[in-house]
């Protein structure tokens, strides 16, 4: 969509006005600074998704809409999670982070901050694997998606 | 190097470049520089309303009756919030408007300044698009885009919010010839293969039906709809917004369909085997309960410029996205070249069935009544104006009777708030209609509840000598609310009685207009004749009508089209 003030609120407003749900939404400018790309995850029947697509296309600032589920695609989400890490927990959490191919990016004597990238379900799995009481804070970006191989979204 | 103009000058120059002759507005702090420039020129006429809601309705009536973009100018804060009802009204009915609103200076935005509201935020869900101009260099292009977006594709209102300092800043003025937007390219031409498929389906029909909506009016395709309908000898029904798309007095017209549609239209809609929907959107007031409407043996062709209107409430078999005018022209061409022809035997049978439904005479009312029946007033209005008037209405029972009993044979003659259902629309819209059609006969059919929602506009009518004919069907009730309370709320008429009514005759006279009260059926015709003889005066006709009259047929909410309550 056009990288213009207010474009994001039009999309968000459309979803709330028409009762569609937004699971996650991630947006940033692209290599062309006049354009932003947004990945929006929503859940609905085929009919609802069709309406969502049509309604998004109607927004004047939206340049192009594709449904990544129409083809093979890759999805990634970034999560930063701060966990309580003391004594014996420290090793355990480090090991877990390695298993999930994350990295510890900040350390204090009581905590680790872990960076983890993957599909949303992988991030969920990591959180399930860590003791609930150890989680101090999480922040997630929401999924970003891109088509596989030659499938390219170009304006 | 050409001279530099202020933002205010540029705003007015843009309107002139667009050929705007008439705008509706109300001044205030944030738009004073724009008003100053309006004052210094005489190409764009400004009509001063008495409330911003009326400015929008008037611009809207102007647009609907003339197929031009309507323009309104309001100030920031309350000026804009008052306008919102009018903007939403136009949005729901896809009416092309450009609304220019003043805003506090850019340096004050976000600081809770005097008369500041987040205009772009407040109007976002009820405009086709809106802009906040932050640099005077963008102003001309923004206004150009506003006119382009408003009038193209599925039309709608576009708002341009201009902070006060921008109206003072200077830049060179260049008005672009055209705009190209990579993110906005409405589809005009229908898909050839889809049109071919539609033609085949149409010719295979045994029980066909054409269902036309406001899109026919908006794309000026009444002539093509008429040609198509007559070429095929199909029945045609129209939505509230589509009236005038096909001549109502013709045999092939089944009148309006929907909640208060005719028995024959609703039955034919329910039992047809091929439905051709043209510029219509299957909304809740039209088809009732979509589950009841669904019929796996009925095939549907749907022509609409807005892809999101297609398969929204009802799944269709042959969607055609495109401008109704273009698609109908193409469809007619294809139909004429097809070898297949319609099945005359099946069609004859179908018409026989329709005539049986028609014999039910669903719009009958007591013509011998000693109390004025509202339906009779509309019928007499139709005859007094030879069916040639522009008719606006407010919202409620009188609106439905107007739609049922005034036979609209031409498009853009029936002006009402269909989607939003805005009481208070009728009189200000009629002002806009009269200004767009100075020689036209303009009647506003209203009720004593609706008319009071914008009654202050009698003053505007006085100032600009607008000779409206106001037909007030005065039943001392919010009639439609009362009807629902009678049918569905055990006759408990909660707050629907109009108490403490003004003397409308004296009220009209106090504004310098003519007022007539009509209390007996035998006086109705003469009063109407007399009113239309007073060519240059506004005449307020206060018809004292039957309090208990209801609108029939009626499809109760949630019911199906064939489950009508009949009189």
Write a short abstract of this structure:
The complex is a heterodimer of chains A (155) and B (567). Chain A is α+β, with helices and mostly antiparallel strands. Chain A has helices at 7-17, 46-58, 88-99, 120-129; strands at 24-29, 36-41, 73-84, 103-107, 111-118, 135-140, 144-147.
Structure description:
The complex is a heterodimer of chains A (about 160) and B (about 575). Chain A is α+β, with helices and mostly antiparallel strands. Chain A is about 30% helix and about 30% strand. In chain A, the strands form two sheets. In chain A, strands 3, 4, 5, 6 and 7 form a five-stranded antiparallel beta sheet that branches. Chain A has a two-stranded antiparallel sheet with strand order 1-2. In chain A, a hairpin with a 3-residue loop joins strand 4 and strand 5. The longest helix of chain A has 13 residues. The mean pLDDT of chain A is about 95. By secondary structure, chain B is α/β, with parallel strands linked by helices. Chain B has three domains: about 170 residues, Rossmann fold; about 170 residues, Rossmann fold (3-Layer(aba) Sandwich), CATH 3.40.50; about 170 residues, Rossmann fold, CATH 3.40.50. Chain B is built from 22 helices and 20 strands. Chain B has a six-stranded parallel beta sheet with strand order 3-2-4-5-7-6, with helices on both faces. A six-stranded parallel beta sheet of chain B has the order 11-10-9-12-13-14, sandwiched between helices. A six-stranded parallel beta sheet of chain B has the order 16-15-17-18-20-19, sandwiched between helices. The longest helix of chain B has 16 residues. The model of chain B has no long low-confidence stretch (mean pLDDT about 95). At the A-B interface, helix 1 and helix 2 of A face loops of B.
CATH overall fold name of the largest domain in chain A = Alpha-Beta Plaits
Report the structural category of chain A: alpha+beta
Q: What is the mean pLDDT of chain B?
A: 97
- Give the CATH class of the largest domain in chain B: Alpha Beta
> What can be said about the biggest beta sheet of chain A?
5 strands, antiparallel
Query: What is the ordering of alpha helices and beta strands of chain A?
Result: HEEHEHEEHEE
């Amino acid at each position: 969509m056009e990288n213009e003030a207010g474009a994001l609120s039009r999309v968000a407003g459309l979803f709330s006005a028409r009762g569609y749900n937004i699971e996650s939404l991630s947006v940033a400018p692209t290599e062309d600074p006049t354009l932003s790309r947004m990945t929006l995850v929503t859940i609905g029947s085929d009919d609802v998704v069709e309406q969502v697509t049509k309604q998004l296309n109607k927004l004047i600032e939206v340049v192009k809409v594709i449904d990544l589920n129409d083809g093979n695609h890759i999805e990634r989400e970034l999560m930063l999670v701060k966990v309580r890490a003391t004594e014996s927990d420290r090793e355990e959490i480090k090991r877990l982070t390695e298993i999930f191919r994350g990295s510890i990016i900040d350390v204090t004597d009581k905590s680790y901050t872990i960076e983890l990238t993957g599909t949303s379900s992988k991030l969920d799995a990591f959180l399930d694997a860590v003791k609930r009481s150890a989680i101090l804070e999480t922040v997630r970006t929401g999924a970003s998606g891109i088509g596989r191989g030659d499938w390219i979204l170009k304006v | 190097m050409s001279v530099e103009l202020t933002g205010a000058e540029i705003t007015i120059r843009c309107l002139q470049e667009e050929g705007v002759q008439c705008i509706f507005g109300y001044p205030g702090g944030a738009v004073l520089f724009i008003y100053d420039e309006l004052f210094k020129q005489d190409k764009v006429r400004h009509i001063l309303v008495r409330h911003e809601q009326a400015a929008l309705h008037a611009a809207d009536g102007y647009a609907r009756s003339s197929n031009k973009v309507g323009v309104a100018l309001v100030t920031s804060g309350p000026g804009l919030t008052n306008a919102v009802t009018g903007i939403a009204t136009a949005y729901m009915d896809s009416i092309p408007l450009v609304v220019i609103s003043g805003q506090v200076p850019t340096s004050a935005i976000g600081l809770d300044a005097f008369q500041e509201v987040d205009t772009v935020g407040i109007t976002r869900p009820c405009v086709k698009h809106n802009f906040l101009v932050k640099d005077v260099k963008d102003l001309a292009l923004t206004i150009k885009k506003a006119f382009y977006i408003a009038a193209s594709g599925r039309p709608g209102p576009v708002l341009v919010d201009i902070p006060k300092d921008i109206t003072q800043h200077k830049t060179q003025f260049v008005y672009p010839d055209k705009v190209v937007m990579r993110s906005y390219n409405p589809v005009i031409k229908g898909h050839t293969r889809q049109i071919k498929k539609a033609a085949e389906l149409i010719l295979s029909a045994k029980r066909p039906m054409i269902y036309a909506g406001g899109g026919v009016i908006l794309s000026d395709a009444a002539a093509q709809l008429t040609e198509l309908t007559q070429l095929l000898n199909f029945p045609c029904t129209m939505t509230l917004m589509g009236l005038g798309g096909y001549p109502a007095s013709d045999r092939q017209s089944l009148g309006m369909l929907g909640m208060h549609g005719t028995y024959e239209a609703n039955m034919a809609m329910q039992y047809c085997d091929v439905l051709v929907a043209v510029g219509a959107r299957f909304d809740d007031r039209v088809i009732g309960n979509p589950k009841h409407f669904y019929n796996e043996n009925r095939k549907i062709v749907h022509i609409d410029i807005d892809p999101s209107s297609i398969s929204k409430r009802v799944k269709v078999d042959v969607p055609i996205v495109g401008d109704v005018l273009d698609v109908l022209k193409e469809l007619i061409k294809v139909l004429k070249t097809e070898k297949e022809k319609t099945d005359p035997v099946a069609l004859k049978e179908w018409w026989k069935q329709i005539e049986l439904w028609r014999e039910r005479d669903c719009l009958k009312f007591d013509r011998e009544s000693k109390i004025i029946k509202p339906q009779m007033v509309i019928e007499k209005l139709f005859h007094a104006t030879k069916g040639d008037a522009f008719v606006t209405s407010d919202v409620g029972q009188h609106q439905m009777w107007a739609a049922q009993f005034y036979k609209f044979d031409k498009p853009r003659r029936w002006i009402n708030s269909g989607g939003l259902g805005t009481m208070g629309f009728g009189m200000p819209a009629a002002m806009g209609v009269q200004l767009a059609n100075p020689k036209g006969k303009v009647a506003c059919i209203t009720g004593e509840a609706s008319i009071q929602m914008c009654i202050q506009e009698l003053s505007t009518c006085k100032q600009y000598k607008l000779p409206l004919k106001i037909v007030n069907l005065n039943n001392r009730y919010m009639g439609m609310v009362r009807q629902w309370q009678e049918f569905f709320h055990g006759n408990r008429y909660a707050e629907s009685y109009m108490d403490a009514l003004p003397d409308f005759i004296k009220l009209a006279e106090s504004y310098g207009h003519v007022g007539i009260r009509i209390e007996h059926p035998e006086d109705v015709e003469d009063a109407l004749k007399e009113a239309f003889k007073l060519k240059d005066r506004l005449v307020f006709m206060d018809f004292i009508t039957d309090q208990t009259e209801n609108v029939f047929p009626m499809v109760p909410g949630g019911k199906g089209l064939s489950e009508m309550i009949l009189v």
